[in-house]
Design a protein that fits this description.
Bound molecules: phenylalanine, zinc ion
Strand content: 15-25%
Number of helices: 28
Structural class: alpha+beta
Shape: globular
């Protein structure tokens, strides 16, 4: 890895329209593992100043020839640097031919053209096209592509690119295919794939009656595992027609699954490329969570066909124009498929787990950043998830029908163009006649607003006065914030927990929507018959932190019976948080309320499963300053044990009443039942062993001393002669009786919580069964890296010497490094600093060949200033060490630098 230039920030305010447009692009690829020849022919037209030079971007390319209108350009007529090719004095209209050579085999950054499992594939978003050929690689240069692929027939029977196949043929031992995409597109949506692939085929008839061929290409022998993705694709296509009036536009839609991929999946026009982990599934190899993700990512990439491809982004600062909107669309789709309450809770959990910490730390950035070094670093939870929240709030305030009209307006007005967030907001203005400029603040201000609410009730007048105020804390480079519009859905409960209606704006209502636009406001609710329990921010109507001072009893009332399922869950979570972080917090009342929930026949299983889960250690870390990871781990474990002990009989009875299903169906209701059964298992194994168990069984080494590192290597607890405790038996049986991967992983992870011989045996069994299944083996690595036992510190070091470990495959690397850094806070934050050192070494190793993937792990150190010593100092030292490393990539340098400075 070398640093090609001095890092120079790109700024939104520097945006200038391109000087040249390229209405037509022809590409010819002669595919070869180390010497692929790329021949590009562009029809170019000047749009800018008469003396503007033509600047084409290109990296790691060997320039062979350059011809302008058929005449070779002499070397003195152009300038070549490691990042661009500049031609001065070019005419206003001309044809440019460029021949370059590239090396896909050596490309381990997985950007541009690379090889994965012996196949050629591409990844061009955001700036990968310039690693294929010289081009004005920016999203506002839209071009019509014709692509010719040529490769040996042997080994590369499939030759795929965007659009429609218009020609194909043979040339001796070689063959070729010519693809034409009739829709002008930015270079980041270009794709090609060549190799041996099986295909699963289907068809979809669009709303206007056109038949679209659907093809999913996978590793030979795997096409049955694409069935669920295909089903999800057809449902997505129908949903986008019914919900947004958006019809698919080509006669062919293809998806290819690859093993080596930096992110989840990519929306290349007509040829989506997926990380295989987000496409392949069957009962034996995929969990319900995998199915859920496959459904949502297939939908997400498909929805991009309109929100991203037909209407694309003017520049990368507008990334959330396509990503925020598309995430909002996929979340709505998943809600329609699986139930809105449960979906909303999961989406908010994710937002809080990933976006809130980002927004509160040194890596905080606005949904539309003002500056960046590497745009790859901005594929963040803020751009995606907070971006989606903004679209959701807009829909909440204008209502579903107006929202649909605004979106119709947006798609129709900007079809075929590269748009901005202002364009998006102006569609809302166009259909409502109102000013939406205050909403721009959500896009340009970083930080999570804090919404404070206090209430005074006057029994004589039956009036409730709510005083609300907002404040967004300072973030790096943004000291002062303006108020943002905050929609607040609000209802009331009686002291006994029954819904309480009230009068607002002349009407009697069970709930109302308020929008706080100023720093402060007062809302008066009339006809409130008793001093109420306030249920504010229902459905999490805005991505803010709510502070509401109220008695604990009010939270219990909402926990027991808020008609808004989100707030019911929220009440439980906030109670659990408070009780866990209080060294004297007791679980008895909480257990009572949870028992009532678990035994309520009107609630569905998926919701009960969510109610059973306690806040994670990462959630808790956000509510404690300074963060003490050992305290959090110990307290959470103790609270969970107390809760589990109080609910032992109920949990075991409920668990027994939900026998494992013999046939597997991935539908939401079945998945919900499995989720509940597995949540109960998790609770059951958290209970302390009874005295009888304790006297005869293996000691629980992961107990109270979990955060202390034992002297030297932890022993491997392999004493098979020791009898198993009751809960070990349950977890072991759960694992061995499992008929699907969901139950199997739940069993394995329960065993990992208990640790001991049964866990070791299960790991060996699992490996033996799945050693030839890479996606399943990723889970095997991940479960070990996330095991909250001190022994994991030495185990992760052993895992990276395992013959199946491969840093060059992002999925495998993340299964160890990311699982450890992000899902195992107690051990990652071990006071010895060994967890930090391990992750730092991993980041530096991967940065040498794949900076984009390496940089994403810097996030693990992002919040170091919030931590207590010795963590804070140790993390800071690690960041300094990373930043001082010779030859660091721009990607890692940007994030490590920000993390330290923030
Ligand atoms: N645009 C992809 C998505 O749908 C994400 C992605 C970005 C994938 C960059 C690869 C590289 O969100
Ligand atoms: Zn996307």
């Amino acid at each position: 890895m070398y640093r090609t230039d001095i890092a120079r920030p790109i700024r939104l305010t520097d945006y200038r329209a391109p000087d040249f447009v390229i209405p037509e692009t022809r590409l010819a690829f002669d595919l070869h593992p180390t010497q692929t020849q790329v021949k590009a022919t562009y029809r170019i037209e000047r749009r800018g100043a008469a003396d503007a030079p033509l600047v084409l971007l290109g990296e790691r390319l060997i320039l062979k020839t350059l011809r302008l209108d058929g005449v070779e350009v002499a070397p003195e007529a152009y300038a070549l640097t490691p990042e661009c090719l500049t031609l001065s004095g070019v005419p206003d209209r001309f044809t440019l031919e460029i021949d370059v050579e590239i090396n896909p085999q050596d490309n381990k950054m997985l950007e541009g053209l690379y090889m994965s499992s012996g196949r050629y594939c591409t990844q061009c978003e955001a700036e990968g096209f310039r690693k294929i050929v010289y081009f004005p690689d920016r999203p506002d240069v839209l071009s019509k592509y014709t692509v010719r692929l040529r490769a040996p027939k042997a080994g590369f029977p499939r030759l795929l690119s965007n659009g429609n196949l218009i020609d194909s043929g043979e040339e001796g031992a070689f063959h070729y295919a010519v693809w034409e995409d009739p829709f002008p597109k930015p270079a980041y949506l270009f794709a090609l794939v060549a190799g041996e692939l099986d295909v699963l085929e289907d068809r979809f008839v669009t709303m206007s009656g056109r038949t679209v061929d659907l093809k999913i290409f996978v590793d030979p022998g795997m096409s049955a595992r694409a069935a669920y993705a295909m089903d999800a694709l057809k449902r997505s296509m129908r949903w986008d027609e019914e919900t947004y009036g958006r019809e698919y536009d080509l006669d062919l839609f293809m998806i290819v699954a690859v093993r080596d991929f930096n992110f989840g999946a990519m929306e290349n026009k007509g040829l989506n490329i997926f990380n295989a982990s987000l496409l392949l599934a069957d009962a034996q190899t995929a969990t319900d969570l995998d199915y859920e993700r496959i459904e949502s990512v297939v939908a997400h990439e498909y929805f991009h066909n309109w929100s991203g491809n037909r209407v694309t982004c003017r520049d990368w600062f507008q990334l959330c124009l396509k990503e925020g909107l598309t995430v909002f669309r996929d979340q709505s789709f998943s809600g329609d498929q699986r139930g809105h309450a449960v979906q909303r809770i999961k989406d908010v959990k994710m937002l809080r787990a990933r976006q809130f910490p980002e927004d509160a730390g040194p890596l905080a950035h606005p949904v539309r950043p003002a500056t960046y070094l590497k745009i790859d670093n901005f594929y963040t939870a803020t751009i995606y998830e907070k971006g989606a929240e903004i679209v959701g709030m807009l829909k909440t305030v204008v209502g579903a029908e107006t929202y649909r009209r605004a979106l119709d307006h947006y798609f129709e007005t900007h079809d075929g163009t590269a748009a901005t967030l202002e364009d998006f907001l102006s569609s809302f203005e166009a259909v409502t006649g109102q000013d939406f400029s205050p909403w721009l603040k959500w896009y340009v201000q970083a930080g999570t607003p804090v919404l404070s609410l206090s209430a005074t009730y006057d029994g004589d007048t039956q009036r409730l006065t709510l005083t609300v105020s907002q404040m967004t804390p300072p973030t790096p480079a943004q000291a002062h914030k303006a108020p943002v519009p905050i929609p607040v859905r609000l209802g009331l409960l009686s002291g006994a927990g029954a819904p309480l209606s009230f009068r607002f704006a002349g009407e009697t209502v069970p709930e109302a929507l308020f929008v706080l636009t100023e720093a402060r406001a007062q809302w008066v609710l009339e006809d409130v018959t008793e001093a109420p329990v306030i249920s504010a921010l229902r459905g999490f109507s805005a991505p803010v932190k709510l502070t509401l001072t109220e008695p604990e009893a009010h939270r219990f009332a909402r926990f027991r019976g808020d008609p808004d399922p989100f707030n019911r869950w929220e009440a439980a979570q906030s109670l659990a948080k408070a009780l866990i972080l209080d060294p004297h917090g007791a679980a008895a009342d909480y257990a009572e309320a949870l028992r009532a929930t678990l035994t309520d026949p009107t609630l569905d299983a998926a919701f009960k499963a969510l109610m059973t889960g306690l806040p994670t250690e990462m959630d808790l870390a956000q509510s404690l300053t300074p963060v003490d990871p050992a305290f959090i781990h110990t307290r959470r474990k103790a609270f969970k044990a107390e809760l589990a002990a109080a609910l032992k009989t109920d949990a075991e009875a409920l668990y027994a009443a939900l026998p494992a299903e013999t046939t597997f169906s991935p539908d939401a209701a079945s998945a919900g039942r499995r989720a509940l059964r597995n949540a109960l298992l998790d609770l059951i194994v958290a209970a302390p062993d009874s005295d009888a168990d304790r006297s005869e069984a293996t000691s629980d080494q992961a107990g109270a001393q979990a955060v202390r590192r034992p002297e030297g290597e932890a022993p491997l607890e392999r004493d098979a002669a020791k009898p198993l405790s009751a809960k070990q038996k349950i977890a072991k049986a759960h694992y061995h009786d499992a008929r699907n991967m969901t139950d199997m992983m739940a069993g394995l992870s329960a065993l990992s919580q208990i640790h001991g011989a049964a866990y070791q045996d299960a790991l060996e069994d699992f490996y033996a069964r799945f050693k030839s299944e890479p996606l399943v083996l990723d889970k095997w690595f991940a479960v070990q890296a996330a095991c909250p036992h001190p022994e994991t510190l030495s185990r992760v070091r052993r895992l990276i010497t395992h013959p199946d470990f491969d840093r060059k495959v992002p999925n495998r690397w993340r299964a160890v490094a990311q699982a450890f850094a992000a899902n195992n806070p107690a051990i990652f934050h071990d006071a010895s600093g060994e967890g930090y050192a391990f992750i730092a070494e991993e980041i530096l190793s991967v940065d040498r060949f794949n900076p984009m993937t390496a940089a994403r792990l810097i996030e693990a150190f992002g919040g170091f200033k919030r931590y207590a010593e010795p963590h804070r100092g140790l993390m800071q030292a690690v960041l300094e060490r990373i930043l001082g490393t010779e030859g660091l990539s721009k990607n890692v340098a940007e994030l490590a630098g920000k993390a330290l400075a923030g």
